[in-house]
Structure formats: structure tokens, C-alpha cells
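Review this:
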Amino acid sequence: MLAEPCILISGGTGLVGRRLIGQLTGPICLLSRRAPAQAAEAVPSSTAATTIRTLQWDAASLLSPQALGPVRAVVHLAGDPVAEGRWTTEKKQRIRDSRVIGTRSLVKSLLQLPQPPEVLVAASAVGFYGHRPGEDLTEVSPAGSGFLPEVCQEWEAEALAAETGGIRVIRLRIGIVLDPHGGALGKMLPIFRSGLGGPLGSGRQYFPWVHADDLVGLIQHGLQSPSLSGAINAVAPTPTTNWQFTQALGRAVHRPAFFPAPKFGLRLVFGEFANSLFDDQKVLPRVALESGYNFRFKTCDEALRDLLS
């Protein structure tokens, strides 16, 4: 057991988790589906953390206080990837269970600790809002309808249960995370570098994105701001349409970006998930800005230049 309270991170071996670990100091405890030795290989070698240890966790099981040790803060990022694989009935069940049941198990484990952590920063998604053309979406906007909004509402409700133990809870509604090593941008780059990239459909729908470094910054902002709680939209402050984003990506890779991707073609590849790619979501990070967070990358041109330089 660690004598000094740790920061507990689920999903720490993913794209965002690895960036976050590289920025943290003090002891860290990782929760991972992988065996500890495999998870350790995914941890960045350049980190200021004094100690990093890994617990294998299947997300449906409770973690004992003895296994966890003292915990001062929690960052919960784990969840089955939404954009990988067709949305079969089984896939949709994994998406839901990994988030809803996983969060429920984690919160129950935290509430069993002799001294619960001070704060839980729990991932959610802008999928909470659904397809909302013509609206400015802030943290007080109601949820949309459909599969993803329903999952996000259940997901966030399980995180909020931690408040019964006096834990400060932040629900990060994360946009499309830009990182060239994976996620949406990682999949788009080969297409755009070949000169075959372009907007989704008309491209008029808003595209809520965030640079991976700003997402890490927002997580740290939440950990370090005792007065901050509730929902936070983790998106860049400059609303961007899909057309504007694809043109910026084309400029960044020095290729034209005029080949529109039709919905029917994407449905053949992604199934039901393709519908969410055309959701119109003008999401604004009002809480982040009002609480003093200073975005490093405010426009997609700035973000893509940094990521692809």
C-alpha cells in the first residue's frame, strides 16, 4: 500500500491517459484491463510521477480498500471505444456497460475507502447533446435523444453518486480529441495526406473538437480548482464547422480537401455510428472559460499546426 495518497486513473494507457500521466507528479495508480506488466509498457517513460503502479480491473468488479490504498483524486477515462467497429447490438451493449457499470463499480469502490478522495474527474462526451442544429450548447443545455445521449446521461448519473460520500464530481463532456497517434485524427490523416479528404456531407454541421493537450489541461484544471464541480464542456472555444475543419486539415498536410464523404457510404463502413458523425453540435466551453481556464489552442489551424509540425 502506498503511504502517500495517489491519483487513481482508469483508462490511463489510452491516448489521453498517457498524455496526462506525463504531466502529473506524485504517486499514480492505474486501473487497466491489461495485466500490470503490459500496462506498464504503455506508460510514458518521461514522467515526473514518483511512483506508478497498476491494478488489473475488469470494470464490473469492486476494488478493495486494501488494493487501492489511500487515494486523493480520481480521473476516470475508461470506456469501450465508440468509433471502433460497427454498432452491432453486442457492441452497443459494451459501449454502455463499460461506461455505466464501470463507473458504478468504481464509485462504489471509492465510497468504501476509509477516506474518500477529494475529487472525481469523470469522462462524459458531447454526445450528451445529440443532434442539435441551430443551438448554442452550454453546460446547462438539456440532453438530446438517441443512443449516445441516453448512455451519457446514465454515465454521468453514476459519477454523480460519488457526491453522497462528499466527493467533488466533475463531468467532462469531451469533444473530438485531436491527437495524430490515434482517434479521429489518426484515422483521417492517411486519407487527407493522399489528397482524398473532404467534409462529411455538406460540412455545414458544427464539429466540436479539442486538442489533446487542452483536454489534459482541463483535467488538471478540474483537479486543482476546489470550487469547480458539475458539467464542463471539454471543447475548443472557437466553434468550427466540419467544412472549416477539413479545410484546415488540408492546409496542414498541404493537400486539397474537397471530396465529400456521403452518409450512405459511411453507413456501409460504420453502420449506425455513421449517423453521429453528421450530428450538428455547436458546443461552447462556457464553464471552462468562466472558471479561468486559458486554452492553448483556440482555433483548429493552431491545433493542427502544432500536432502535425
Notes: The two ends are 43 Å apart (CA to CA). The chain has a mean pLDDT of 92. Residues 16 and 282 are 23 Å apart (CA to CA).
